[in-house]
Fold:
Amino acid sequence: MAVPGQKPKPHIQAVREGTFRPDRNSEGARFAPEIPAEPDWSELLPGDSAEDVRDKAADVWARTIPALVVSAGLTDPQRETAIEYCVTVARLWQAERELSRTGLVVETERGNVKSPWVTIAHQYRSHFRSLVGELGLSPASATRITPPESGDDDGDIFD
Structure:
């Protein structure tokens, strides 16, 4: 069940901002700053029909993940969320493409009905919105993320 109120800041962000209080904030999990490795898309999305989806997911990874590493401190243990984001974008793209080809209404033996791709696109779009908020990729959610400081810092918790 969802907890009302503002989402808590990640521990590292509260430390960077100087707002961490042990009585109010949870330290949570801490991960070593390791750059996520790109998955083998052909293993993750097998089959000849998934070639377009693999290409799109790889393109999304190349455009998004390096920026998240720098801007939000994305690490390798958080890689599955990043992979899920890339696959969701690729599947949403696939659904929209099929909707453009077949239309919103398809003819069946029972008459004209809503295309199943409409439902698929809606579900992926909903999942996409939650992942965008989680990763800080929308303009609103990006304001809640403080980028990691660059340079040598003796106060770094990973030193």
Q: What stands out?
A: The radius of gyration is 20 Å.
